[in-house]
Amino acid sequence: MWKSSAISLACSGKKTSTWLYKSSDASFRNLNEAQISDRIASSRERVGNEHSRCGTPFSLSPVGGKVVRLHSCGVVPRGYYLRRLANYLVSLSFRPDFFSVPNCNWNTMSRCLVTGGAGFIGSHLVERLLDQGHSVDVLDNVSTGDLVNLRGVVDHPEFRFFQGSITDPIAVTEAVRGADVIYHLAAAVGVKLVADDPVRTIETNIDPTDAMLRLAVQGGQKFFLASTSEVYGKNPREVWSEVDDLVFGPTTKPRWAYGCSKAIDEFLALAYHQKFGLDVVIGRFFNVVGPRQVGDYGMVVPRFLEKAKRGEELTIYDDGSQVRCFAHVREVVDAVTTLMETPAAVGEVVNIGSDRAVSIKELADAAIRVAGSDSKVCYKTYESAYGSNFEDIRRRVPDVSKLERLTGQKPSMPLDEILSDILNTPVNGK
């Protein structure tokens, strides 16, 4: 089997680059250079058509020892097109022996589709993927996201935006075409939204995920499914691990619709992995916070900080003893991208979040302290905000040992530092 023991760039000037491809097919060992030339010639038109999309002239030629030289003059092909061109050679049983592009890596450079990419977490993920040298497409209907979240990348040459809903099969099919990796973050989210419209929650979270998984099987894409700590329901354990039972309340309480729908998404993803061999990684997010998050859908941190900045009362529902763990979105995105580069994570469910427990009353006090505010705290019942059918989770703390074992890291930013970063980042800023 071919191994990339030496990866380097051989170039003869700023605007010329050369890649060498070596055959890993045993049948090629018996071919002479003329026969290899014939094999290359038969594919030259196909490769050339793809490569011309970059506007970059190229040449292919044998150099001996079952090695092929791809010589590019002009602008070095980037991202998706370079990947596609190289994949044609791979389909001919060649592998790169010497290969490199600045800030890119043969093993990780991909065209990525991020559903929900205009949202809070999605927009941070888009930036990270672009920074890593990937090409990124976003599919988002901007119902709960905001295009302003993407203003820092809108002019990036490797970024494309598709405005459409994941519930639209045509939009989804178009967006998936050409992708190497799918990050499926789009979903109905937020306690208030789920409580107000459980039908939308169920329709948005289940059928589109099934459709995308089917397309991923057909296209061979690797798939990240964003799930949630809500799938644990009201499990009574102090700390939740990925193998713990899911304990939901009665169907008469709409708040369980979200957790149930995301649990079904997980079942679907794992079934596609087991039946079709689809490379799937499932991440269960625990209270992700940071710049760009808004309080419109019940998110507590932006709601508290906005009130504290204005010197207004911070409203705590119930007695404030509920326990949560808050992780900065940058650390969460780091965990997601690292998991997708970790072969051992395929087919696994992984908790992603901080394991530092904080009560809601402590969060309110921290928001007031960090904002330098003289705000007071008031208490209200859940019923006053979410209706009589609402039921809350008293404690939500993840066991992140699996994440740490797979990636060597876990979110650890202290709460005050997280809150300060949010306060010091301009509204809708990067």
UniProtKB/TrEMBL annotation:
Top-level taxon of origin: Bacteria
The protein's enzyme class: lyase
EC number: 4.2.1.46
Protein name (database record): dTDP-glucose 4,6-dehydratase
Provenance organism: Stratiformator vulcanicus
UniProt-listed GO biological process terms: D-xylose metabolic process
Cofactor: NAD(+)
Domain NAD-dependent epimerase/dehydratase per the UniProt entry, residue ranges: 113-353
Lineage: Bacteria, Pseudomonadati, Planctomycetota, Planctomycetia, Planctomycetales
One MF term in the entry's GO annotations: dTDP-glucose 4,6-dehydratase activity
Swiss-Prot/TrEMBL keywords: Decarboxylase, Lyase, NAD
A GO CC term assigned to this protein in UniProt: cytoplasm
